Amino acid sequence: MNTRFYNAKILTMEEPIKIIEGELWVGGSAILYVGDGTDKERVYEKNGNQPIIWDEEIDCRGNLLMPGFKDAHTHSAMTLLRSYADDMPLQDWLNKQVFPVEAKLESEDIYHLTKLAVLEYLTSGITGVMEMYLEPRAIQEAFTECGMRNAQVSGINKFGPSLEELENRYLSLNGQNELSSFMLGFHAEYTCSKELLQDIAAMAHKYKAPVFTHNAETALEVEECKERYGVTPTVLFDRLGIYDFGGGGYHCVHMCDDDFEVFKKRNLIAVTNPASNLKLASGIAPISRYLQEGIPVAIGTDGPASNNCLDMFREMFLVTGLAKYRDGDASSTNALEVLKMATVNGAKAMGWKDCETLAEGSKADLIMIDLHQPNMQPLHNIPKNIVYAGSKQNVKLTMINGKILYENGNFHIGTDPEEIYEKCNAISKRLQLEA
Amino acid sequence: MNTRFYNAKILTMEEPIKIIEGELWVGGSAILYVGDGTDKERVYEKNGNQPIIWDEEIDCRGNLLMPGFKDAHTHSAMTLLRSYADDMPLQDWLNKQVFPVEAKLESEDIYHLTKLAVLEYLTSGITGVMEMYLEPRAIQEAFTECGMRNAQVSGINKFGPSLEELENRYLSLNGQNELSSFMLGFHAEYTCSKELLQDIAAMAHKYKAPVFTHNAETALEVEECKERYGVTPTVLFDRLGIYDFGGGGYHCVHMCDDDFEVFKKRNLIAVTNPASNLKLASGIAPISRYLQEGIPVAIGTDGPASNNCLDMFREMFLVTGLAKYRDGDASSTNALEVLKMATVNGAKAMGWKDCETLAEGSKADLIMIDLHQPNMQPLHNIPKNIVYAGSKQNVKLTMINGKILYENGNFHIGTDPEEIYEKCNAISKRLQLEA
Fold first, then answer.
1. Using a CB-CB distance cutoff of 8 angstroms, which residues of chain A are in contact with residue B86?
2. pTM over 0.90, yes/no
3. ipTM of this model?
4. By residue range, what is the domain housing residue A386?
């Protein structure tokens, strides 16, 4: 498929950040051209001086093209638990509501529930997710069938799977297709034994691989780790060698000076999940401190059991709004920084060098933002409009790997959304979920 | 116009709160019938045993009808300043950016900028607004032409208008049409002299009228009031007799025990504006304390200069999310409480007894929520889905006073949205706003 977008505003997210008026061309899965249209010749030259045959030409009517959002921490199949187990503290929520239901989930359930999440990612302009959940084979199948880019991260813990199975997954789920990867990780310090953490460190060394995990989400988690090991989770992981090849943490709310030092020394990425942290009363992450220290921040929605939606617009507003509140400074953490977190830094966390910006040669993972909506007017400052005023309603089109998967409210993922809804409601009924 | 909605789920917001499966009938501006359809006869009886001739019959396909949201504090025409003066502390923001631009605004500018806001309210399912801004005649004209229900509140302060003009507005802008009212109010303690506050109290007594004002938005505002008068703004207003006939405050973030006592004694309403309070680093309102004290809370977006959007879904999530964070308790301020704030209590603040719920005889101010969207699935608990996961994208239809003003992304307000955008961008250009 060759697609030509014309009459567009384009926010490539390449530095220095500016908005171009022009065209963007997609050939197969990649971006062939981005520019004002005066220098198209060089693309024709690459094409043997032949004109490109367009399968589709889209008049953007002055709307904005930008890189798709990267959701850098989620548990997609927890769509099942949306509005099920709310209004409870994190530990009770996990132990009394989440874990017992998860124990009854079958691989096929997770496949359908993941597809439900994909529909929602597309409505929010999310073109790539960093996933951590049970049954990674079923998850990769669901994502791949839909056309969703995904980096799965192992959530191994003392309840399973075995270390052999983790390695098996790492070896077999990477390289399956161009949309999917599988990364090393574990659930959290409080669900792993010291031996397991040591084994994960050894595997990180064996494969020279980055490692991600839930880290410093609650004050209690940090306190209990200190009681067990005398140090914070971040320092513990670093001492065990888990972070020797990079990676990072999800949440990273309750951080001390030593933790920031480890993040800097190991080039780690902090993935913030502000809606989940509010709703579970976990706290507000020190975003401006990360910025000051030069530690990259990416943004995740967390799973829909805790959030309860998969909406990058809400997360972006929360990142800046909560930073301003926390710092008592309305100038903290500006809109461009937040846009960078939601796009470029998310791709970095997932290890995707060719999905960061709208550059020629990069993957065509992009969205069209409808500027002909009242919340995007007037047009003083489009990046600020997106971060401070944007909503899912502004997503007119979502393209992943060169394919349009969502356009004007219609999904093109190979399955009828109503069929997915029916499957998911049936799972909910079978497990007798009521809230 | 007579409109029949069928095949609907209906959340009337009447106590006890439950969801009915059935029909809702609108005759002219009012609701004729709400029910499961088995007791329609009594409506025919009222109609002289004649069947009702429907102008439109809408198959809701199982989607949800509920009362429209009431935005209980806004400055609509500040759409002009969206993404213009961000990232500044409140006092600088007001004095250096907002006031100088406002001084150049003409009545016609405010008319067009208010219409831009109406478009956005409709996309968010907002069917009534409690407005405070300059040029109330132009505002009433804009709202009335669009079909938007509005309660304007005077924002008088030491810079104007005169007390005579306030009284003139109060007398002439009430009773103009069934969509509009005008209430007594003033900007804030810090922009009014003591004499002016006394005059407003006298006018409240003359008309036995409730009074609304910005109150305790920032810690600085409260401190400076205490330096001037030895008491908090709430206590000062109460001592002056301003609250003798009710009313309430906007923001109400920094409150002490005495303030809560005044709110209880005078039956005042606290209007919370969480997005604005975060973005200007003002603080987090004590929502659960209001609930404990039995003080009704309503929700406002504040103006789009500080927020920067007019989105009741974002506000609802923030009300509960921030309360949970502030209380360190994930069970604080549940979804049903928040829905009540966003509908029933907003109508109460504006003095509209016939817009609170979807009851027979009440005004047909209602919205349809699209449950066939992934963020509303599964259907365990619809009220929680709306508060925790809802977005503008879920608003399928907005009806005010029996008229459909927004449906499936199309506006029916008598003016082409593109024309409104053009006018507003021209104003921005004329005033040389850049951000």
1. 330, 334-335, 384, 388
2. yes
3. 0.97
4. 2-67+362-411
